[in-house]
Amino acid sequence: MTVSKKTAGKGTARPAGAAEAEFEYAAEQAAKGYEQVATMTREGLEQVSAAAINGYEGVAEFNKELTEAFQASSNELTRTVEETTRAMTDYAKTSLEDSMSAANRMFGAKSVQDFMNVQADWARTSFERFAAESAKMQERSAQAASAAVAPLNAGATAAFEKFSKPLAR
After folding, report:
1. Any idea what DSSP says for residue 167?
2. Mean pLDDT throughout 57-71?
């Protein structure tokens, strides 16, 4: 058995070829470690890349959903404004017709008392109709606001849920 140089600091002799075997073993381990680091780096980059792509797709989908929510809200608001305008026009027409009818009856009154009765009846019915129409308009306005905001609220809720999930991890 041949003896190689003493190893540094240990003071023991090794058989010849042992150092080469250790060097080969160390080189193999280094190569395996490098391969592991390279594989982990590649996988990490793939995950980051996939997350970035998913993030972009998520933002693009969110923008699409937000645009659709604004469109739905705008459509609902337009529909409600049209209905409100029709209702106000109908009320104005009916009010004008009733006022004209009352004016004709007042001009045809035979006495001051008849004139006062027609005028009082017209004022009472006009006020009652105005109060009822005002209540309807108030209800329509509240429904319009709720209907117009609903798509935006749903979009905001969906966005919060979608973007808060990655933060929860």
Report:
1. H
2. 77
